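Page 42, continued from yesterday. The earlier attempt failed because a stray header line got pasted into the input along with the sequence. Redoing it now with the clean sequence only.
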Amino acid sequence: MSQHTVLVTSATGRIGRELVARLSQHNDITVRACYFSADKVEMLKSLGADEVVHFDLSDPNTWEAALDGVTAVYSASLDPMLQGHLEFSKELGRRKDVIQHVVRVSCMGADTNTASYDADSHASRAGAGIPLMLQHYWWGEKSLIDAGLNVTALRNNFFMNHLLKTDCDTIANDGTFSNPLGEMRNSFVATRDIAEAAAVVLIEGPERHGNKFYDITGPAPQSMSEIAADLGRAMDKEITYEAQSMVDFENDFGSTRAEFFEYLTNGFYTRCSPDFYNLTGHKPTSYFDYLTTKGASGETGLEELWQGNLWKKGEDAMKDAVK
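This time it went through. Structure tokens are written below.
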């Protein structure tokens, strides 16, 4: 197999770190990892990145060096960076004769092109539209498709390590966490599994995975009481779930995140997909195993739980993105 260069955007994120570590094990791939902050360079090199490059979706001046000689791109971006991603997709399209494949991190529910999907009716309750976050994920996919690229979208369930990040203080101090999900079971997914799926797709290439859309989920749907039991067992500490009203949750995090959680409370993320197994040949990682075992980048899920988080109580992280 000929040598090719894969650009890993968001390489310092939880999926990105795992992906860099996995791709670096393949001698026919040159792994070019993107960083935003220079203090992350040595970490990326330690994971096996062959090259590191400064990259900023909001600064097109950083794109040329990042894309020079690239044949495949792993594309991931936080929702507030959607506009930058849409512009970057156009730049990738201008290089489609060289860029053979783009793997995009997306979300279950971004189903416009693959399902019978009506934004006015595919909703969690009468009169509610499809959650804005899911619309954004679809726009992220569509911009790459419209650019004429070979695209594989990984449509993921809700991330295990995002579930409790807003409650780190209360977990540490009081052994409690709260949200509106209650006894509704969701098949939360480990970020290391998303990275493994992305690695398989990038290694096997667009001939096999181009224009494919995979739902990546956990192995079993779990309620909040079951999540609390797993977390408590991993921490050797009693952890208790405290139910929260949707009104209070919206006051904490804003309407955009609340409507997404409402979507989860109505069962849209309950099912377990076989796609991860069909890609990798083994079952997805359970929540307890995610917490207590190390991924390719060397961290356990429990260690990741205490790292940075976009969502903070009292702040609407989506306020600007809504515009």
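Notes: The chain has a mean pLDDT of 92.
Reminder to self: strip header lines before submitting.
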